[in-house]
Amino acid sequence: MTTGKSKAVAQAEAYYDSPDADSFYFTIWGGEDIHIGMYKDDSEPIVTASHRNDETLASMLRGVDQTTKVLDIGAGYGGAARHLARTRGCHVTCLNISETQNRLNRELNDKAGLAGKVDVVYGDFENIPAEDASMDVVWSQDAILHSGNRRRVLDEVKRVLRPGGQFIFTDPMQADDCPEGVLQPILDRIHLETLGSFGFYDAELGKRGFEKVEVKVLTHQLRRHYWRVGEELKAKYERLSKGASTDYLDNMIKGLGHWVDGADKGYLAWGVMHYRLAK
Asked: How many domains is the chain partitioned into structurally?
């Protein structure tokens, strides 16, 4: 049974479809990969570090080959999907709420000769348009935070995975011991009431019959990424102001600072979570 979009999902759709956001994320955040990067050092290019995220998650998956069906929920511009299709030979369905991003995703798939390996579907992860037990892997990078009903997302992930299927994801989260109220500037900025946490996901996935395979705690990469994006934005501010409003850019700089501050104070968390649905 499907439900309507949560308010948070609807707001995320409007945001990522906006010209300001499209210009910023593709130009600054990571190009084809608009998620947190995994950096070797503070000077490494954002695109390189963001792509390393793709390969790190891919290397953790087990038994992926040409017969594997992967669903990427919140796929953005599809960089991870192309990486998986190109290097593992699997079929990937990109599920994403931004048609602005979806159009470019399809263009990039065509250009890479991967249109037959990567499908792009409009939709949201609270109501996944896929059959029960139809996927071998569900993959997500820094997207589930945008849901106003994360438990519903996890229900949907379980529904579409076959028994024994893998769920691998990253998500910007709060620390399990985060004091109440300290993240309000971040939550206000992204129109959310809460963030997930390692403990939240572990408990909720356990209730749904998932077994933990591996969890990598990499919170330092969250801090480094938001700092690197902020520095890059400041350096390219004049150029970006030709494609995005200065109000948007100024608010983005302020918002990125809140994430860096929250990480410095130990209020935030980030990492890779890999689970398997019990057979």
From this structure: 1
In residues, how long is the chain?
279
Asked if 52 and 46 count as a contact pair (C-beta separation under 8 A), the reply is: no
In a domain, 2, yes or no: no
pLDDT of residue 13: 56
pLDDT in tens, 219-240: 999 999 999 999 998 998 998 8
Question: For residue 243, which amino acid is it?
Answer: G
Query: Does a structural domain hold residue 169?
Result: yes
**Considering only CA atoms, which of 106, 76, 104, 80 is closest in space to residue 92?**
80
The domain spanning residue 213 has which CATH number? 3.40.50.150
Is there a domain that residue 234 lies in? yes
**Full residue range of the structural domain in which residue 35 is found:** 7-277
CB 223 within 8 A of CB 263: yes
Evaluate whether 271 touches 216 at the Cβ level (below 8 Å). yes
Tokens 């896929």 locate to 130
* CA separation for the pair 153, 93 (Å, rounded): 17
Mean pLDDT for the chain?
92
DSSP code for 135: E
Q: What is the pLDDT of residues 62-76, one digit of tens each?
A: 999 999 999 999 999
- Cβ–Cβ under 8 Å, residues 222 and 263: yes
